[in-house]
Write a structure and sequence with these properties.
CATH topology: 60s Ribosomal Protein L30, Chain: A
Number of domains: 1
Shape: globular
Strand content: 15-25%
Number of strands: 7
Distance between the termini: 37 Å
Radius of gyration: 19 Å
Structural class: alpha+beta
CATH superfamily: RutC-like
Largest sheet: 7 strands, mixed
Oligomer: single chain
Order of helices and strands: HEHEEEHEHEE
Length: 153
């Protein structure tokens, strides 16, 4: 084979690897994620290369029930983010960006619980965080939704 042919083969293989690495792969959280996919036609996470993006995760259980306590709802949303990240091969240790959406304003309890859980789930780093007040979320009783970006490399 000529040197030119070898370079073409090498370039072709490198392009194939890059295209495979950058192809989106979608994930469904076991339990409630299957319901969301079947009923609302969306996935809970997508991974492109080493980047994982989650859809908003509420403080629901697998039956889409929301706890009465705001602190319990926030804690369940964090657990749901953890489950969703795990489905995509990531964890809280990979999270670099958090968006949280809140109904009902920001009583001191909201930030107290959020910060406590940030420190619990991410003791070795502090991600960037955008906290947004909204009028409503997907379920009528929801008061919080959290979405994250994680980098696994």
């Amino acid at each position: 084979m000529t040197t030119t042919a070898l370079h073409l083969i090498h370039d072709f293989k490198r392009t194939q690897q890059r295209n495979t690495m950058n192809k989106p792969k979608f994930f469904v959280t076991p339990g409630y994620g299957e319901h969301m996919l079947n009923e609302l036609h969306y996935s809970q996470a997508v991974k492109i290369g080493d980047r994982v993006e989650t859809s908003g995760q509420g403080g629901w259980d697998d039956n889409l029930q929301i706890p009465e306590s705001l602190a319990d709802e926030i804690a369940q949303a964090f657990r749901n983010v953890e489950r969703t990240l795990a489905a995509a091969g990531a964890g809280w240790e990979h999270v670099v960006h958090v968006n949280s959406y809140h109904v009902g304003g920001f009583p001191p309890e909201v930030n107290d619980v959020m910060v406590k859980l940030f420190r619990h789930y991410m003791p070795n780093h502090a991600p960037i965080w955008t906290e947004v007040g909204v009028a409503a979320l997907a379920l009528p009783t929801m008061r919080i939704e959290i979405r994250v970006t994680a980098i696994t490399s």
